[in-house]
């Protein structure tokens, strides 16, 4: 197979997989049939395109081929006359139009995969499989589970959608905001798992997951261009992804934001993220959670170095975010900014008030360790680093925390216990 053909097939898979699955799901009402027939259509493309050439409209070719594969399967699996008639009628339907005509079907597919009746981990797996086109082994590796277990999870999810008659549609106007929020949460979880993987035996940064999350969020923004939170999440991902190559050292250690080489940041991603943030601010509409988080990251990436960061603006943005999401994690992140603005002692008082809610969260102890270190309380800082290392699952983060702990002076024996 020539490089040009291989590139065309790869491009078609990334751009057309979800469109084809969505078109078949609408026509046949069965996600199993839609997924398997789409996979067979791509397998046929691998066989045929090297000899026949890439068709003028790859999406339409793949959709037509997949529909024929689906009809063949229905005929093989059913001996009832009504099913045979149904298959013939489907086969006689008009051929699909240009691939862009089924964007609305893709949106329906996304909402089906992220339906609230499904467990959160199942929504992630289904979205990556049916919308993203990732294979079951790829998804299993991404989330550190056995391939058979992941396959069973996806199979059960599709069976539940069919048995519970979960509708294959875009939610009604009154339900749409809540349902979009659920979709965004799934995409953000995928991105976060890639940006700082939680498993101890995986690379600390998983570019395949961050890039897939960004791609799917771009798709969602194309389909919902007026949704501010979709734009906000895309901006947040872009501004975070822009720092990816500077986030882990050559030795495999996490590099904190203030120590990163800002010259290594991706300027194109930063420019795009900043543009999205400015566009949302220009609307005058009150921002949502993802838009505020994107704005915080825009302030960070706008600074030429850590000392030039506008911490007062960041604290103000966190104050706005706390009103929308007063969760302990948001308040913890706010305290990091407060430490830069008002000093570590003020921030530590805020952090300590969160101890009963975040004792099992490694970032809580890492934050306390850093604040205690800055206050010269080495013994307490060391104990906090020990607890953070115990709870951290990412190898790069563990290496960073261990180095910071080992840089402390001798244990402070004056600490009251």
TrEMBL record:
Residues 72-94 have a biased composition (Basic and acidic residues). InterPro entries: DUF6596, RNA_pol_sigma70_r2, RNA_pol_sigma70_r4_t2, RNA_pol_sigma_r2, RNA_pol_sigma_r3/r4-like, TPR-like_helical_dom_sf, WH-like_DNA-bd_sf. Residues 19-79 form the RNA polymerase sigma-70 region domain. GO terms for biological process: DNA-templated transcription initiation. Residues 72-101 are annotated as: Disordered. GO terms for molecular function: DNA binding; sigma factor activity. Gene3D superfamilies: 1.10.1740.10, Tetratricopeptide repeat domain, Winged helix-like DNA-binding domain superfamily/Winged helix DNA-binding domain. It comes from the Bacteria. Residues 110-161 form the RNA polymerase sigma factor 70 region 4 type domain. Residues 179-279 form the DUF6596 domain. Keywords: Sigma factor, Transcription, Transcription regulation. The keyword Transcription applies. Belongs to the sigma-70 factor family. ECF subfamily. This is Putative ECF subfamily RNA polymerase sigma-24 subunit. It comes from Actinoplanes friuliensis DSM 7358.
């Amino acid at each position: 197979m020539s490089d040009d053909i291989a590139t065309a097939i790869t491009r078609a898979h990334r751009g057309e997989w979800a469109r084809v699955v969505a078109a078949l799901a609408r026509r046949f009402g069965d996600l199993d049939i839609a997924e398997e027939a789409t996979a067979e259509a791509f397998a046929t493309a691998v066989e045929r395109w090297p000899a026949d050439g890439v068709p003028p409209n790859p999406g339409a070719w793949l959709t037509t081929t997949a529909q024929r594969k689906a009809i063949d399967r229905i005929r093989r699996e059913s001996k009832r006359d009504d099913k045979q008639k149904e298959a013939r009628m489907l086969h006689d339907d008009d051929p699909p139009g240009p691939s862009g005509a089924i964007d609305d079907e893709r949106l329906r597919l996304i909402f089906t995969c992220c339906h609230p009746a499904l467990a959160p981990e199942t929504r992630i797996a289904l979205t990556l499989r049916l919308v993203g086109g990732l294979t079951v082994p790829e998804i299993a590796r991404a989330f550190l589970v056995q391939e058979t277990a992941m396959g069973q999870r996806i199979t059960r999810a599709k069976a539940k959608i069919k048995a519970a008659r979960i509708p294959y549609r875009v939610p009604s106007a009154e339900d749409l905001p809540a349902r979009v929020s659920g979709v965004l949460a799934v995409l953000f979880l995928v991105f976060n798992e890639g940006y700082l993987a939680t498993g101890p035996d995986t690379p600390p940064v998983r570019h395949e997951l961050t890039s897939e999350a960004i791609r799917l969020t771009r798709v969602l923004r194309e389909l919902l261009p007026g949704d501010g939170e979709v734009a906000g999440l895309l901006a947040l991902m872009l501004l975070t992804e822009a720092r990816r190559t500077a986030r882990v050292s050559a030795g495999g250690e996490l590099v904190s934001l203030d120590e990163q080489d800002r010259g290594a940041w991706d300027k194109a991603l930063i420019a795009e993220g900043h543009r999205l943030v400015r566009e949302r601010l220009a609307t005058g509409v009150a921002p949502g959670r993802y838009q505020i988080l994107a704005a915080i990251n825009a302030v960070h990436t706008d600074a030429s170095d850590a000392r030039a960061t506008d911490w007062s603006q960041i604290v103000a943005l966190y104050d706005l975010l706390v009103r929308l999401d007063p969760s302990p994690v948001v308040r913890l992140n706010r305290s990091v900014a407060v430490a830069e603005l008002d000093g570590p002692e003020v921030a530590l008082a805020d952090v300590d008030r969160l101890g009963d809610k975040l004792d099992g969260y490694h970032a809580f102890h890492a934050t306390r360790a850093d604040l205690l270190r800055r206050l010269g309380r080495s013994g307490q800082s060391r104990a906090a680093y020990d607890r953070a290392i115990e709870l951290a699952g990412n190898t790069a983060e563990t290496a960073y925390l261990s180095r910071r702990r080992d840089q402390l002076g001798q244990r402070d024996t004056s600490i009251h216990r």
